[in-house]
Design goal:
456 residues, alpha+beta, 4-stranded mixed beta sheet, 12 helices
Length: 456
């Protein structure tokens, strides 16, 4: 091909390219879908901004632990209330049912039963029939399924058939065998009731250690993807262990599972279980997003940083002692503003003996309930008494994987007023569960234009 022909061909291609385009040959960028923020259910938007974090100078003891400093946080969504027993039970039930369905599918595969055979065969893996798979699904099934220690990794369980919990309706002996493995042995049962073996309620998830990846640029991606497996059932014995020589058996027996306490904050949950819940919540929402054509995945749900928690608790009030302002714990009508221990030995002076429903007392100016009292709340931060001295002033966060002392904030139903102050810091160990510690989650806001400073 001579130079004349090559030049002519290049010109023709250029003309065709510009004629078929709507950008008139200009650099207009890649056009995506018009995006609108969607406020997550049960959450409030906390507009980003600057605030004075820490203790006032007149708190001589606390100022060493939390010296005042001005910091800025980005916008985020936060749960209006602490995560309730009802909400956490949704997580527990999902994990339990997923494990059951996997066990049923595995046994159906081992004995060679399919949906046409009925019984446990109805719970066979959905990919047992490849005829209705898309090209992509078939490719993934043939090339990646079963690459793991069990040989069942990547198999799709059947969620279309309801699980059967009434023993009188079990479809066959195989189904009975699987269900039997999820209950405590008969010798550990009493009052004619068999209960779930909750040690088998384990949630597995993977996450990336982005901090480590950023610090060590030479590390391989697979080396910073971490796998976690967490027992997720709350430790109900905390009601007994936290208080020696005290009769709290009714709370141990009923608090988590009984409908009377559904709207009360979940307790007995470790820091690690709280993080697992957030991972599941992201998974649960994104599985719904996938079912809607054209929908984008949502941002990760997570625990708040210590700065985010304090900023939200203050509700836009600068230098406030409590979420409602302060410095008093009673309103002008003589009513207590939160659930705590106002008098030595008198837990009920505020009309609450233990916890109260998550939507109790007046919310702060960000419409968040019980940011002081009721239950203390896990945050995504490790406790270091000198942390305020070296953290960044923008989105400060200290979370050392080797430091198992994790921050709790807000005070609880069994604490004195000092721990209800928005600037008070406390900690508990990551693997510890308490009858007075719960949590709430946050989600990053997409964009930066919403700020409290800008609104003013």
């Amino acid at each position: 091909m001579d130079m004349k022909k090559l030049l002519l061909l290049t010109t023709v291609l250029a003309v065709l390219a510009s004629c078929g385009s709507k950008d008139r040959g200009e650099l207009v960028g890649v056009k995506g879908k018009k995006w609108h923020p969607e406020k997550p259910y049960g959450m409030q938007l906390i507009p980003g901004g600057a605030f004075i974090m820490g203790k006032a100078d007149d708190d001589l003891a606390g100022v060493h632990d939390a010296p005042a400093k001005t910091v800025t946080v980005r916008s985020f969504y936060m749960d209006e209330t602490e995560i309730t027993n009802s909400e956490y039970r949704q997580f527990v039930n999902w994990v339990r049912d997923s494990i059951l369905r996997m066990k049923l599918a595995v046994l159906a595969d081992e004995v060679g039963l399919t949906p046409e055979d009925g019984g446990i065969g109805e719970y066979a893996f959905k990919d047992v029939d490849t005829t209705n798979m898309s090209v992509y699904e078939k490719y993934m099934f043939e090339n990646y399924t079963g690459l793991g220690p069990t040989g069942y990794e990547g198999r799709k369980i059947n969620k279309d058939v309801d699980l059967i919990f009434d023993t009188a309706e079990y479809p066959d002996e195989y189904y009975t065998e699987v269900m039997d493995t999820m209950y405590l042995p008969l010798e550990e049962s009493f009052n004619g009731q068999r209960t779930w073996d909750v040690t088998k309620f384990k949630f597995q998830y993977n996450h990336m250690d982005i901090q480590e990846a950023a610090r060590n640029r030479g590390v391989k991606r697979k080396d910073v993807i971490l796998k976690e497996e967490i027992e997720i059932y709350p430790d109900t014995t905390v009601w007994i262990r936290d208080f020696a020589y005290s009769y709290n058996e009714p709370m141990h027996n009923d608090y988590f599972w009984h409908d009377a306490f559904s709207e009360y904050p979940v307790v007995g949950v470790t820091w690690k279980q709280a993080k697992a819940f957030c991972e599941w919540r992201t998974l649960w929402k994104n599985s719904y997003q996938k079912s809607k054509p054209g929908s984008s995945p949502v941002n990760t749900f997570r625990l708040p940083s210590e700065a985010e928690w304090e900023y939200a608790a203050r509700g836009g009030l600068q230098a406030a002692t409590y979420p409602w302002g302060g410095p008093y714990t009673k309103s002008d009508r003589g009513c207590f503003m939160a659930n705590f221990k106002p008098v030595r030995g008198d837990y009920a002076a505020d009309q609450a003996l233990y916890t109260v429903e998550a939507k109790s007392y007046d919310p702060n100016d960000y419409n968040l309930y019980n940011m002081a009292g009721n239950v203390s709340e896990w945050v995504n931060a490790s406790y270091d008494p000198s942390a305020y001295e070296y953290t960044s002033t923008i989105n400060p966060s200290v979370n050392d994987a080797n430091n198992q002392r994790k921050i709790v904030r807000g005070g609880s139903w069994k604490d004195v007023a000092y721990f209800l102050q928005v600037s008070s810091r406390d900690y508990e160990y990551a693997d510890s569960a308490r009858s007075y510690i719960g949590f709430r989650s946050v989600q990053d806001y997409m964009g930066t234009q919403v700020t409290a400073n800008g609104q003013k």
